[in-house]
Amino acid sequence: MTAIHDSVPGTSGSRNPSAATGRRPSPGRRLSRPVRQRLAADVGLLVIVASFVLPLLWLLFASVDKQPGMTVNPPSSLTTDNFSAVLTDEITFTPMLNSLLLCGGATLMTVTAAALAAYPLSRYRARFARPYLLTILFTTCLPITAVMVPVYGLFVQTNLIDTMHGTSFFLATSQLPFAIWLMKNFMDGVPVALEEAAWTDGASWLQALVRVILPLMGPGFAVVTVYSFIMMWGNFFVPFMLLISPEQLPASVSIFTFFGNFGSIAYGELAAFSILYSTPVLLLYILISKRLGGGFTLGGAVKG
Amino acid sequence: MSTTGIASPVSKGRPGGGGTSPGDPRGKGTRALRWLPIAPATLLLLLFLAGPIAYCVYIAFTDMQLTGQASASFVGFDNFERAFGDAKFINAVVLTLIFTLISSILGQNTLGLTLAALMARASKTVRSVTGAVVISAWVLPEIVAGFLLYTFFNKEGTLNAVLGFLNLPSQNWLYTLPIVAVSFANVWRGTAFSMLVYSAALSEIPKEVTESAEVDGAGAWQRLWHITLPMIRRSIGTNLMLNTLQTLSVFGLIWAMTRGGPGGRSETLPIFMYDQAFNKSLIGYGTAVALLLLVVGALFSVVYLRLMREEV
């Protein structure tokens, strides 16, 4: 199709209906234009990418540098001291475990509630289904940041403040609207005929959901799970507001308490910890994007 | 209840005969019971989202303070009147507008579209590298991104080193132009989303359309303006709405970079709200600001819903 695309020079005045059938003019022209276009696009992209990559490079370099400054510089001498300095219970293991419990529990809640809710929304018709979905979509967009002050007030009054379960309930709820929306859209793509086979064999709706629909929307289910987890893992404001005891803080907040006083930061250690803390979500993202053949875009799920 | 209708098949491949299959468990039990699965999600949303929002509306009209919970009394619109007479609040509103304009509307949106358009033409290797780098910036936890960009914009950071190398004047960005620094930080972090949305949208434009425009002699800019942009206008609308809503609630990034300073010159509404509620212990006032933020968010959401109406 690129051959067709470039077979007709942009300056050609008359519309040629036979162009679509693949008329081929001189081969010289045909090759030069796409190559030039591609080179221009490549150069443009590389310039933009350079500005995106500099802060990331700093992170990589500083984490293995003995005396890192704030400027990107290849490390003068390589060291793993920064990593061994932060690999302690207090700095890395406890906060990471807290993050895992907090976000893992919340993801489990989100995904379960979303899958259950998506099933009737995808399979049955009811007058309230559309308003319900519209409300969900509306909630997806609300700035959660804005409700944190009242949530703090409510949590103080109900003794949920500074508890892991209270915080993970809230985290789960904050991701729930988008999870329901995504899950319902993915579920819509699973043909009802396959479920009917399960019903004929006497399966209940729950069995059909767990054994037939969820496996069939495999990548979709993984996307919802991983996306919810990534969003919670990186969330700073919610645990920052709702958790107080240092031993309960997840990595997103502990990084701040350990390194937040800019005066005397050990940049190498900060970088090393940042890498440790970021790796799980980067790996998870690679996992889902690979599983969907690299073509995965949340854009597809939210496109207008 | 009569609101629930007969189960409607979603698939197109349903066998000819109407009605439910013999083994269809949906035929059993009452129709209302079928909707039971939405209960857990609904309960969570009511308790942890609708509840706080209702509570938010209530506290915004009281003088609740962090210390004296019992003494909270109804004060009507005092908190709001106070806000509109408060120079620091007005400052926060202006900064939020600047932040949204630079980072969401100009930055993420335009850069995301540019990246998507270039990626459609670039070679495979460059395309993959671009995707990996830009998406990494997006997937990184917010607070890590904050630290990275703090060092990047710092007086002794990478940006000044690059400017020095190019013989351009350097600046103490976080001190002279903090709001611009945090806006660019948000562009760095958020552009991947727009890039993904626009990549999906551009891939859906049929090749024949652009080709026939080219045949008719339309130049690159004309094609962009008259063909591409109109064809992806719904994606543009969606993307602008979602970007703006995300930008309105940015807290961690700014908090890690400047904490709203220096002197409140990067104090957007979320930071202002937090500062009033917790550092100044004025929960009532802080919540009133939160409510305003929520209302602005809700208005944007309604516009977004109108754009998405046909999807539901």
TrEMBL record, chain A:
ABC transmembrane type-1 domain ranges (all copies): 96-288
CDD domains (alphabetical): TM_PBP2 (cd06261)
Signal peptide (residue range): none
Entry superkingdom: Bacteria
Polar residues bias locations: 9-19
Compartments where located: Cell membrane
UniProt keyword annotations, A-Z: Cell membrane, Membrane, Transmembrane, Transmembrane helix, Transport
Spans annotated as Disordered: 1-33
Name assigned to this protein: Sugar ABC transporter permease
Origin organism lineage: Bacteria, Bacillati, Actinomycetota, Actinomycetes, Kitasatosporales
UniProtKB/TrEMBL annotation, chain B:
InterPro entries from the UniProt entry: MetI-like, MetI-like_sf
Record field: transmembrane: 35-61, 89-120, 132-153, 173-198, 240-258, 282-305
Membrane topology term: Multi-pass membrane protein
Region (Disordered): 1-26
Predominant localisation class: membrane
Keywords for the protein's UniProt record, in alphabetical order: Cell membrane, Membrane, Transmembrane, Transmembrane helix, Transport
Pfam family, one: BPD_transp_1
PROSITE patterns from the UniProt entry: ABC_TM1
Domain ABC transmembrane type-1 as annotated: residue spans: 94-304
Localization (cell): Cell membrane
Family according to the record: Belongs to the binding-protein-dependent transport system permease family.
Name of the protein in question: Amino acid ABC transporter permease
Species of origin: Streptomyces daqingensis
